[in-house]
Design goal:
The protein has one domain. About 55% of the residues lie in helices and about 0% in strands. It contains eleven helices and two strands. Strands 1-2 form a two-stranded antiparallel sheet. A hairpin with a 2-residue loop joins strand 1 (about 125-130) and strand 2 (about 130). Helix 3 (about 45-55) crosses helix 11 (about 185-200) and helix 4 (about 60-75) crosses helix 10. The two termini are about 35 Å apart. Mean pLDDT is about 90; it is low at about 5-20.
Length: about 200
């Protein structure tokens, strides 16, 4: 039976999640470059952690990750960042594109011609500075990004690994998750096991 290491119940409000004594994390271009480089440097370790979670995640992993997400949403101001809007390749549904175009006071044909290339937008044309100019009408994927509070965290780990190089909230939550689950204790043994499996397959 897997153990539970998180709170009995995940905090439901992002504003309540982090103790007020914790310091806010300032976001700037240097910080964003640093988490990108750290994510790249830790790529092998992060993939091993992903594999380990598939087999060893505690039963309350969703609640634990949700609490971490809420903690870092409290400590990090997205309005100082906007990195997801600048960096991600945005693939919205047709109704979402119509909503965005209407919110930007453009026809859908004009909008697609200016901003959509083979179904993809990058960066998001609604981004003004670090702020979303259509915040109230933003698509569902934007509302839930970086998707740490969705159910079945373990089934979405490839996407999480992509997001930690982009989003400070995802990066910090993922690193603290490693610490809470005592990944360092298991890492060497698990990594050795994965290398042995790879060698047998080659």
């Amino acid at each position: 039976m897997k153990t539970s290491v998180g709170p009995n119940r995940a905090t439901t409000s992002r504003t309540e999640a982090a103790p007020k004594t914790l310091s806010q994390i300032a976001i700037n271009a240097e910080y964003l470059e640093r988490i990108k480089l750290l994510s790249e440097a830790n790529e092998s370790e992060n993939y091993d952690f992903r594999s380990w979670l598939k087999y060893s995640a505690p039963d309350d992993i969703d609640d634990l990750v949700k609490a971490l997400s809420q903690k870092y949403f409290t400590l990090i101001d997205c309005k100082e960042c906007g990195n997801c809007c600048r960096t991600l390749e945005l693939d919205f549904t047709e109704p979402e594109l119509h909503t965005i175009a209407k919110s930007m006071q453009q026809s859908i044909d004009e909008f697609k011609k200016r901003f959509v290339v083979e179904g993809i937008m990058k960066p998001c044309p609604a981004l003004k500075g670090n702020l979303c100019s259509i915040y109230e009408a933003r698509p569902g994927d934007c509302r839930s990004y970086p998707h740490l509070e969705k159910p079945d965290f373990v089934s979405r780990l490839y996407g999480v690994l992509d997001n930690i190089a982009i989003c400070p909230i995802a990066f910090n939550a993922f690193e603290e998750l490693k610490a809470k689950l005592k990944w360092a204790k298991y890492r060497e043994r698990w990594s050795k096991r994965m290398r042995q499996i790879e060698m047998r397959l080659t």
